Amino acid sequence: MVKQTLAQDYRSLARTHLVSAQALMKGSDDDLTFACLRLRQCIEALSYGLLVSYQHELSQSAIMTWQPRRVLDELEAADPLANASREITIEIPTKGTRESMTISGEDRRFNPKWVNKAYNKLGSFLHVPTPKALEAKSELSNDDIRRQCVEYAGFLNKIFDTPIWHFTSGQFVSHTCQCGFLIKRRVETVNRDTVFECVECGRKYDVTRLDQNRAEIRLRVAQWTCPSCGSLNEMGAHELREGMELNCPHCGKGFKVELAWAFRENPA
């Protein structure tokens, strides 16, 4: 289960990697390789922290994504503004009084284009130059690498320099899965093809009716007729696995699930 404190843990980890990278950049040329690695880890940790902040809006496969660029693409599919920086003002009531406390700041996020460029560039510094680059003597000098690291570190520093981070809001269609996990999808992204997939157990729900800001959904099931007794049975589609063994609940006959190709007429 994804813990609510995980986003905070990732942010703290990202900050630790950034501080380490900045210290290494002040060291010898040999330390630059480790500085690049730490900067990449900072980018990863920030991306994963944002990912778990959207855990209720993502599919099981999306939450397992690890490449930063793919992480941000998954988030943008769930929330078109997921990767956009924005000014936020939050008013928090003070307990026991009629007064409130206001917190304002910019929720700063990096976009997929920047992440992809920086992450790959830093990765290229970790590898031996290709024969073509070595022959052409086109690889960057240590001073060039250091300047690039300083630039990236400066940008990442700005991500942390704000009191508000990973703020999410919106109008949602929500459903509590049979396992108890709350699944949410933004109203503007829901249509008849939307799949509500539970991050915790993998159950999938299909939209059966859509009416303004409300949607009716139904568990996706697999139905099968027992060849032995002719009874119609069903099970959650998420439970199907190649090679799994099951028994007919009516006659007890055992079966094995196998994948097979099928050819069907293409409707005009």
Walk me through what this model shows.
This protein has 268 residues and is an alpha+beta fold. It has three domains: 146 residues; 48 residues, Rubrerythrin, domain 2 (Single Sheet); 35 residues, no CATH class. 35% of the residues lie in helices and 22% in strands. The protein contains seven helices and eleven strands. Strands 5-6-7 form a three-stranded antiparallel β-sheet, with no helix packed on it. Strand 10 and strand 11 form a beta hairpin. The protein is extended. The chain starts with 5 loop residues before the first helix and ends in a 12-residue tail after the last strand. The mean pLDDT is 91.
Write the layout of secondary structure elements.
Blueprint: H1 6-25, H2 32-53, H3 60-63, H4 68-78, E1 86-93, E2 100-107, H5 112-124, H6 131-136, H7 142-160, E3 172-176, E4 182-186, E5 195-197, E6 204-211, E7 214-219, E8 221-225, E9 232-236, E10 245-247, E11 254-256
Antiparallel strand pairs: 1-2, 3-4, 5-6, 6-7, 8-9, 10-11
Helix pairs in contact: 1-2, 1-7, 2-4, 2-5, 2-7, 4-5
